[in-house]
Design brief:
about 15% strand, single chain, Rossmann fold, 8-stranded mixed sheet, 6-stranded parallel sheet, about 45% helix, about 400 residues, globular
């Protein structure tokens, strides 16, 4: 099978969050299982560009990746990618598009349809209630004028959770088939690191209790609940600190800093910016609790990474995999509410044995449900089914 994966951003563009990691993990394992995978992407990396060779094949873990130069940043459009699609898309058996509202989905869908190639679209949470609706008038207009073409012609729409699928159904947007396959996770990405290296780098006192957030600094992450919730936590746990690890998005960091200042927590919060590799592993392994008080998440790779390290997690119901985590008693799931979050954090900080057992269940939960090999095998089954149905 020859698969073309089209996505606007790809590793090492880590500023674009979890999808770039999970998409490569999937492609890497597809290759290991015998699929010929090519990726068409751009050199975008947040507000910068990747320092990488362009318009040529780069082998990353067996995946053939082509980075094309940006032409129009706002739409993440590349003229070179357009020409490559026009010339080469007919050489593939199936196209998988990880994108909506950007040029990748429209161009990929257009040329796949033109050359009668089946294609799948992964919206990655962009049609969930909190990110699509009355607050997103531009998205609604764009969808009905442009994106609908790709959605109605796709052989399948892929969702990473049942919650994401349900929200899409409520939009009344078209689909031929819906797939629910979770994001893959590679446990080897969290190898043990030397003790207290994160504490030392960021001047955190030994014995301090770390409440950790990892992700993009964006309004959807729910800092309006997290910051005020910590006021009473810090009163009762004077050695606790909040670590916010992630890239600023559209200048939202200043809004978080204003909240912190208004609540007088300047000395209790540490911003690290984007972290990856050993430093990210160290942050997770040296923390006491992971917190994600999001309005909406289609999956949350950051939560999975915390859980696989045995770190107890507190998440809101807006995180699409919250139902599964709650059912497995693998984390604390709450409404997006300040007092509930305060109580949950204090509960785990004050009950170390409970926190440790919950972390253990979380680790088991991830390995039992999201291993990269099992997810890749599920995709291969779905891919083959779609390709076969086109020839029946």
């Amino acid at each position: 099978m020859k698969l073309l994966h089209i996505t606007p951003s790809y590793i090492p563009a880590y500023s674009h969050g979890g999808p770039v990691v999970s998409v490569h993990a999937l492609n890497k394992w597809l290759v290991k299982l015998g699929v010929d995978v090519t990726v068409y992407t751009t050199d975008i990396d947040g507000d910068k560009k990747l320092d990488i060779s362009l318009n040529k094949e780069i082998n990353i873990d067996g995946v053939k990746v082509f980075y094309f130069p940006l032409t129009f940043r706002a739409w993440e459009y590349s003229n070179a990618m357009l020409h490559a699609l026009k010339k080469n898309i007919q050489n593939f058996d199936l196209v998988h598009i990880t994108s909506v509202f950007l040029s990748a989905s429209l161009l990929g869908a257009y040329y796949a349809k033109k050359y009668k190639k089946p294609f799948i679209i992964s919206p990655r949470g962009n049609f969930m209630k909190q990110t699509y609706g009355s607050k997103s008038l531009k998205k609604i207009i764009y969808t009905h004028c442009i994106e609908k073409f790709a959605l109605k012609n796709a052989s399948a729409i892929h969702f990473t959770s049942e919650a994401e699928k349900r929200d899409y159904v409520e939009t009344k947007l078209p689909f031929k088939k819906m797939l629910v396959v979770p994001n893959p996770f590679e446990g080897e990405n969290l190898d043990p690191v030397e003790n207290n290296v994160f504490h030392s780098k960021w001047g955190i006192k030994e014995g301090a209790e770390i409440v950790l957030f990892v992700g993009r600094l964006n309004w959807v992450k729910g800092f309006d609940t997290l910051i005020p919730a910590l006021v009473d936590v810090f009163k009762k746990r004077s050695n606790a600190v909040l670590v916010i690890a992630g890239p600023d998005e559209a200048g939202y960091k200043k809004n978080i800093q204003l909240l912190i200042t208004n609540y007088g927590l300047q000395d209790k919060v540490i911003f690290t910016g984007l972290i990856s590799g050993e430093e990210k592993n160290a942050a997770i392994q040296e923390s006491d609790i992971f917190v994600l008080s999001s309005f909406s998440e289609s999956f949350s790779m950051a939560t999975i990474e915390a859980m696989v390290a045995g770190l107890p997690v507190i998440i809101t119901k807006g995180v699409a995999i919250s139902e599964e985590i709650k059912n497995a008693d693998a984390g604390i799931v709450i409404e997006k509410d300040q007092k509930l979050l305060t109580d949950a954090i204090l509960d785990l900080l004050e009950n170390k044995d409970k926190a440790k057992k919950m972390g253990g269940r979380g680790k088991d939960f991830v390995y039992n449900n999201f291993s990269a090999e099992s997810v890749a095998r599920r995709f291969i089954e779905e891919y083959n089914g779609i390709i076969h149905s086109r020839h029946v």
